[in-house]
Amino acid sequence: METIGAEKPGTANNVLDALRSMCRWACGPRELLSRDPTQGVPHFEQGEGHKPWSPEQLAWADKNLTGMLRRAYVLGRFTGQRISDMVRLGPTDVDEGGFSLRQKKTGVRPWCPIFPELEAEMETWEKRPGPFLRQESGKPFTPNGLWKMLDRVREDHPELAGVVWHGLRANAVIRLRQEGYTALQISDMVGMSVPMVERYSRYADRKAGGQAVLLQMEERKQAKIVKRGKTGKRK
């Protein structure tokens, strides 16, 4: 468990929760266990999630990515979906101005708005049935295929060093948070648990809090200047 927790804390916590439920059942009326060995075992710290792409990396991608890589990039950035779901998205998943697709990992069906930036990109795509992301052979991309495509670009362009597809999921959450949406609303749009949304939103919340402090300081400074002007007092 310690080894799993060090490398994959989320997986370790899921295993711990499953063991805890099983032990509680075994300690119940069946009396298969005299005590719960998971009692008092803490969850592993999960950090703040995958690192979002930096503003510079997003700007570079906006300017330079082309073809299917660009298509995957804008889908990831503006829908916040996992690549296992991105490769399945297609025209039939459009539902009154948004995407409605049951997620492969969780079974959750979020409703993700098609934002103007993504809509503008989609208008340039060919109209055909099936997934938006296709290889030159016409076959749909697999998650592994998308990773290989991103790996090649990262090797050739140091500007994208360290980026991962899941980072765009973080970017989508942060963007929505900065627009003023609640964690519950973002959860419904992206298909992410509320605790995970809050984890990804910490940066946006900290930044907003810091900017609010700066604004208040500036307002107080201006108020003092106006007050001194009215009273004629000078420091």
Automatic annotation (TrEMBL):
Gene Ontology terms describing biological process: DNA integration; DNA recombination
Gene3D superfamilies noted in UniProt: Intergrase catalytic core (1.10.443.10)
Lineage of producing organism: Bacteria, Pseudomonadati, Pseudomonadota, Alphaproteobacteria, Hyphomicrobiales
Single annotated GO MF: DNA binding
Signal peptide interval: none
Name of the protein described by the UniProt record: Integrase
Entry keyword set: DNA recombination
